[in-house]
Amino acid sequence: MTTPAATLFISDHAPRHAQVMIHQYRAHGYRVVGASARASDSFFHHLDARIPAALDYDDDPDPQLWLQRLAAHGVDAIVPVSIAASRYFSRHAQAFLDAGVGLLLPPHETWAMLHDKQQSADFADSVGVRTPRTVAVRQADAGARIAEAGLSYPVVVKTIQEGGAKFVRYAHSAEQAHDIIAEFAQRNPMAVARGVIAQEYIDGQGCGYFALARDGEILSEFCHLRIRENPPSGGVSASCESYAHPKLIAAGRKLVQGSRYSGVCMCEFKYMPAEDEFCLIEINPKFWGSMLLSVSCGVNFPLNYVRAALGQPIPATPYDAGRRVQFVASDLATALRHRHRVGDVVSDLLDPAVTKDSFFLGISWYLRYMLGLFRR
Fold first, then answer.
1. ATP-grasp domain location, by residue (predicted)?
2. For 210-251, what is each residue's pLDDT tens digit?
3. How far is the C-alpha of 200 from the C-alpha of 135, rounded, in Å?
4. Do 193 and 280 share a domain, yes or no?
5. Is residue 124 part of a domain?
6. How many domains, in total, are found in the chain?
């Protein structure tokens, strides 16, 4: 029997990018342990083993409780995937490092600053990266605050701590801004209690700068351009392609180096072709949903993260711009809701040069995963 390269604990196994990560880890000889009370998740989500008595990251459990569970499986390194897991493990990183478990995250204060959209915008301004004009708003006086800030409609209304596409809306009037915040409060009162902002709307194409770093030293980096999103108003990438613009790379490096960041992060920008400039939208200090693109281009962030966490060297990985990935389920969902996109979606489906997530993972793997999501 082959000895695994190492045993890894992946904090969240259901997201689509987690499946890419698990696929890569297992393909390169790693043993992957997840946390789930469902025995069937080992089959549907391709885990080698699972920790059935999982602990909720948001409950901030004593790290010793996690260490006991990880030790029982001989875990060598932790791979945080979600915001909740990244927050928890950044807060308690030293306890895991002291126990000899590999982990690469920034100090919690740095992580929390970058996760907060208002604080991260202030930081970006301080290192010379352009950001949208932003104002804190409340339901009671959203319209007045937007007017005082000199913002014109539409504006982007979002919670200051990342909550996905369901906490980002476009307001075309003061009344809409009020109603959006009310909707957020109904959906998640705590998200609104942490704060809501209104941002200047930036008309441009979505793009991203991605990095793996240690104390601000960049170990791997990659850029992409969003081709289609689900939903089109702003959500997950349904189709994207590799990209390399010197101004985007320079802006991303300022953020990573200026914060002395450790771990992986995504910096989301809008490209404004008329000005040939990039505007930072937000920073996500965690793994990202479209990671398959970088992996297919040879910049293997999942593997490089583990190598860095275990103190191993990271290979230099240049990549070619213009390679495209299609996330089949997300792109088909986009086409069903927005019929004018059907032609583009079908064109990518039929183009053999476009990497499909279903083919990359393998049809049997992909079907098992989709069945697992359906069961949830």
1. 121-310
2. 999 999 999 999 999 999 887 666 667 889 999 999 999 999
3. 9
4. no
5. no
6. 3
| Per-residue tokens: 107 | 């100090």
At 234 the pLDDT is 65
Query: Measured between alpha carbons, how far is 244 from 106 in angstroms, rounded to an integer?
Result: 26
| pLDDT at residue 93 tops 80 | yes
Q: What CA–CA distance (Å, rounded) separates 62 from 42?
A: 26
Torsion angle, alpha carbons of 109, 163, 121, 79, to 10: 50
Report CA Rg, the chain: 21
Nearest to 285 by CA among 108, 93, 94: 108
Residue 79 sits at the vertex; the CA angle it makes with 77 and 81, to the nearest 5 degrees, is 170
Cβ atoms of 196 and 189 closer than 8 Å: no
Checking DSSP bridges between strand 77-79 and strand 49-51, what pairing results, if any? unpaired
DSSP category for residue 2: P
| CB distance 286 to 82 below 8 Å | yes
DSSP track, 209-240: EEEEEETTEEEEEEEEEEEEEESTTS-EEEEE
Whether residues 242 and 338 fall in one domain? yes
- pTM given for the model: 0.93
Q: Give the rounded distance of the alpha carbon of 22 from its chain centre.
A: 16
pLDDT in tens, 161-218: 866 667 889 999 999 999 999 999 998 888 899 899 999 999 999 999 999 999 999 9
